[in-house]
Structure formats: C-alpha cells, structure tokens
Amino acid sequence: MKRIVFIAFVAVLVTGVRLTSFAQVLEAPPRDGVYDRTVITQVQPIPYPYLREADITWTKRVWRVIDMREKMNQPFYFPETPQNQWKSFMQIILDGMKEGTIQAYSAETDLFLVPLAHKDLMDQLETKQKLHLKRPDNPDIEFDTVISKIFNASDVKQLRVKEDWYFDKQRSVLEVRILGICPMMESFAEDGTTRGYKPLFWIYFPDCRNLFARSEQFNLRNGVAGRLTYDDVFMKRIFSSYVYKEENVYDRQISDYATGVDALLESERAKNKILEFESSLWEY
Asked: Is the pLDDT of residue 28 over 90?
C-alpha cells in the first residue's frame, strides 16, 4: 500500500514539473534579437516648459495634413500587420483607445468637446458596401447585397494636425505645440468614385504623449539601434506636411477660396509667413 502511494506521489510530482516547465516555455519565448530591449518601455516624454500669458507676444494657429503615402511619412503607415512592439501609428491609436489611455472626440469640431466611447466609435467607423453578385447555385441569376466592412487601421491614409505657433519673450524662442490629431479615411460614392477624405475623430495630443513616448517608429537610418519614438517624431518635426488652413477672420480653409496651383502656393505662403516672422525678429 505504501509503495502504491509513493508511486502516485512521484507521478504527481513529475507531472507538476512538466507543467511548470511547459508554462515557463510559454511565458519566456526566445529573444527576437541580439539584446533585450527594455529602454523603450521606460521612456517618459520631456515635459513642456512653463508659459505665462504675459510672455506670449505672438501666436499663429495652423492646421496641417500629413499624407502617409509620401516617402518621408511611410513609417507612419507601416507595418500593416503589427509585429511584436512595432505597430503603425493608427494601430497604436486604436489600441490606446481600446485600453482607455486615449480619449477620442467627435470630428464635427476640433475643440475636443464631445467624447466618444470606444464601442460607439468603432460601430460608426464600420462601413456598408453594396455589391452586385451572382448566385453560387445558379450563376445566371444576379442580385444586389450590402455587406459590412470592419474598420481597419490601414484604411487611414492621412492625418490632420492642429497646432499653435507662439513666441515666448521670456526665453526668446519661437516654438510650436501640437494640440490635436485627426485620422482621415478616403470616402467613396456608391458607384466607387472617390469623394475625398473624411475626418474620423480627434485626439488631444498632450494627453497621448506618454503612450507615444513608449511607441517606436521604424528608423529609416539606424534601424532598431536608433530609437525613435512617435513623441520624438512630432516634437522634432520629422514628417512632411502641408498647410490646409490657417486662422483667419472668415474661418475658412484654403480650398474654400483657392484651387489647383493657387492652393499649393497659398499653402506655401502660410508656411513661409511663420519662417519670415522668426527671421525678422533678429537684426545683425
């Protein structure tokens, strides 16, 4: 009897060791690289300098568009499928909203007034697509149907950026702060023709900096050795963009009064106006 109990005890012990070893294998997969990358998870964004209202002598608000199809902006769009810690910028935003670290606001206004719940927002982003199909049992019979298309991060091709330029006389610097980011998705008519881009929602950039500082963008020069976070990208202005609106008394976009080449020239004029203001501050 004692021998049977001893054998049963040994069998249970061996089984427990095997389960523990199996669990350890699942919890600690092989390292995908030549070293452990732990610094990126500990990065904190550099805090904004303190500003007094009395020290701000000039401001200019502009709205920009970052087109991810441009070569310089392609790291925003890729990878289309997440790979370990490497995700596209839109996928980072979607994951942050799902986890509750990012709050989305209605795209009807860029004043961050109407917060949106994650589930309600995803239901709104789900699109309906009308298809003309043939029946599988009888190809001679055709019918129309409507299918639901789930929103995907790769559907976003452009980003709107709202930012304020200001001159701080206390530190004698001209700086810019990004206030909000709005993903844009291409809109299509029922016949398949494009109808431009529509805004999806706004996020308040200062509240997202902690997440962006721990989210890495692919470095085109140094690879993973040259750590580059999305907070670095926006703070150091490592992106290409064009101005589609500057603050004006009519509150209108450039496309409302200029088209074609004239719109491009007006966008360049809005950007050069800020550079000219900075250069005219100093005389030698």
From this structure: no
Residues 6+ apart with CB under 8 A from 43: 213, 214, 229, 231
Residue 86 — φ and ψ, nearest 5°?
-95, 115
pLDDT digit string, tens, across residues 247-275 = 999 999 999 999 999 999 999 999 999 99
On whether residue 113 sits in a domain, the answer given is no
Q: How far apart are CA 119 and CA 134, in angstroms?
A: 34
The first and second tokens of residue 134, run together, are 């043939």
* H or E element that contains 130: strand 127-134
Residue 25 within a domain: no
Burial class (CB in 10 A: 0-12, 13-18, 19+), 263: middle
Contact criterion met (CB below 8 Å) for 212 and 92: yes
> Could you tell me which of 94, 98, 78 has the C-alpha nearest to residue 86?
78
Residue 139 lies in a domain: no
d(CA 92, CA 85): 10
Burial class (CB in 10 A: 0-12, 13-18, 19+), 80: exposed
Angle at 94 between CA 91 and CA 100, to 5 degrees: 140
pLDDT tens digits, residue range 37-90?
Answer: 777 777 889 999 999 999 999 999 999 999 999 999 999 999 988 887 789 999
- Sorted by sequence, the CB contacts under 8 Å of residue 73 that are 6+ apart come out as 66, 67, 239, 240
Residue among 154, 134, 153 at smallest CA distance from 142: 134
Residues 6+ apart with CB under 8 A from 205: 178, 179, 180, 181, 234
89 part of a folded domain: yes
Could you tell me the residue range of the domain that residue 191 belongs to? 35-105+155-279
Number of separate domains in the chain: 1
State residue 283's pLDDT score.
Answer: 65
